[in-house]
Design brief:
- 2 copies of one chain form a homodimer.
- The first copy, chain A, is an alpha/beta fold.
- The first copy, chain A, folds into 2 domains: about 10-135 and about 295-310, 2-Layer Sandwich (Nucleotidyltransferase, domain 5); about 170-285, 2-Layer Sandwich (Nucleotidyltransferase, domain 5), CATH 3.30.420.
- Chain A is built from 10 helices and 15 strands.
- A 6-stranded mixed β-sheet of chain A has the order 3-2-1-4-8-7, covered by helices on one side. In chain A, strands 6-13-12-11-14-15 form a 6-stranded mixed β-sheet, with helices on both faces. In chain A, strands 5-9-10 form a 3-stranded mixed β-sheet, with no helix packed on it.
- In chain A, helix 4 packs across helix 10.
- The longest helix of chain A is centred in the last third of the chain and has 23 residues, at about 235-255.
């Protein structure tokens, strides 16, 4: 890698995770840190202290600007970055990034987006920045975007504007059900590896896709299949994942409206693998973007709005 | 109450609860005990000891027979009463009650019912006895039966035979989501009282009934409604309950097939109130039977098969 200096510390700060990347002026990653100092930890030990310790260990210049997205901007976070209402233009969202007062360097937090509605209230924090990172792909026309995770988001955009979105508790339900429900007796901890390769994943996915309304009526079958048919813990984990993802995709397809082109899938790691495999099996075309790359690109764009031309600072030796 | 002597100790012994009724020869309740000594407690302190202590405190005769249903008959319970396979005749189920060996009195446990199938494996323990308790109402023709609970059961019967059934994790999901998920911040403990009276219950129920596939895509709205609209903890609890029950009834109606007459609803207490209110709102006719009375009647019938004419014993002074 070339010795181009960092121009930005890009930070994704969620409830349970903190990720920091030092980026050069082309957006390339120079350094990366991942820690479990999410909001629950950082709110106790101090946000600025936590951030500065990591930046110090990365030898970042004292005046390197920082752009943050995620729950750090919530009311319970560091500094509240009030929600931008839906329909939300992505560049307006980035332009609304809130300055952290009295910090020793330039720090801003990208706001979340709120769908204020009596019928379908919803909020996001962090996903708007990922979406901004693929702004070029959705600048024109209508798009359906799927962002899997603890709280999966499905969004409809038109000409780069978020028109409507909804949240799916898929990842959180997987965690809750496999550790806290009657299904915990059927699913061994750590049995979530290689789920995409397990035939049970696609079998349960297909059934759920065809009848997504049956979620609560199918969960117990995972337990009964173990009792009656001796299904293994690995198979049960893959079944639960297939069931939940099938319900998500099946219901979203019915309720989010169709689009002409492919669905934009923003995901990384094992989740990207599971959803790609699921969409392929359902015959639904997707364009995949890496979620980590997308959030960095979004933070870089926000930086261009606020810190430019401060991006040319020297990296400290 | 008349001084007719008890002829049976009827016992419903589940994972978390133990209920004992002393019944006279007409099936009327002479005495009742409820305790939290379900399987998790009783397996440690001893099943026979637990049962005999309660019977002693109830001053039951040393030779009063005992008929048990529920998880006490599971492999992890007191004595395994192997599942009767589906399609299951109710009288066959009761006739298959297993004797507890080496007990100081006549004790039998009613078996559960298993739907052995690669596609839709399912099991029940306890509900078959409730169903036997309303055998007269379902002796002829086809019936759809709804038994709400931690694990709601929906059954199709024909001429008194259980043809098929499925389990809905409705009650367990309510508990898990309101105490362990992100929704716990929106739902105060104990806020589940008077839910049926809260307009949010029927509002969320109606939406879920119309689109039961949207369950995982609607849960987060409860949180968002609190953040954006200031929804109260009581309203959120009623919303979650309405959402889950709406998904159950909506999906069961689509997938369990129709019946000509009313749905048989077997339930008691606040759950009976919620489901009655929900069915009425949906314009679905139901015939309600009290779940406690039904389980006692089922155990009494089983007793008739096995302990008769031992039912005329004297009550100890």
């Amino acid at each position: 890698m070339n010795s181009s200096p960092p121009v930005l510390a890009a930070v994704d700060w969620g409830t349970t995770r903190l990720r920091i990347w030092l980026l050069d002026d082309s957006g390339s990653v120079l350094e990366e840190r991942r820690s479990n100092e999410g909001l629950s930890v950082a709110s106790t030990q101090g946000y600025e202290q936590t951030l500065e310790r990591h930046l110090g260990e990365l030898q970042a210049a004292a005046d390197l600007p920082v752009m943050i997205c995620g729950m750090a901007g919530s009311r319970q976070g560091w500094v509240e970055a009030p929600y931008v209402p839906c329909p939300a233009r992505l560049d307006e969202v980035l332009l609304s990034a809130v300055a952290v007062p009295s910090a020793g360097r330039s720090i801003r937090i990208v706001p979340g987006v709120a769908q204020r509605s009596d019928d379908s209230p919803d909020v996001m924090r962090g996903e708007e920045t990922q979406l901004a990172g693929i702004a070029g792909q959705i600048a024109e026309g209508e798009h359906l975007v799927c962002m899997p995770g603890t709280h999966s988001k499905w969004l409809r955009t038109r000409d780069g504007v978020i028109e409507t979105f909804s949240t799916w508790l898929t990842g959180e339900l997987f965690e809750l059900l496999s550790t806290g429900s009657i299904l915990r007796h059927s699913i061994a901890p750590g049995s979530t590896d290689f789920m995409a390769d397990n035939p049970a994943f696609l079998n349960w996915f297909s059934d759920a896709l065809a009848a997504p309304e049956m979620l609560t009526g199918r969960l117990f079958r995972i337990r009964a299949a173990m009792l009656l048919n001796g299904t293994s813990a690995e198979e049960s984990a893959a079944a639960l994942s297939g069931l939940l993802i099938g319900c998500e995709i099946g219901a979203a397809r019915r309720n989010m409206g169709g689009v002409e082109g492919a669905i934009q899938l923003i995901a990384s790691g094992p989740l990207a693998q599971l959803y790609q495999s699921a969409f392929a099996h359902a015959g639904i075309k997707v364009v995949v973007s890496d979620a980590d790359a997308a959030v960095r690109a979004g933070l870089m764009q926000a930086s261009g709005h606020h810190f430019h031309p401060a991006g040319a600072r020297r990296r400290q030796a």
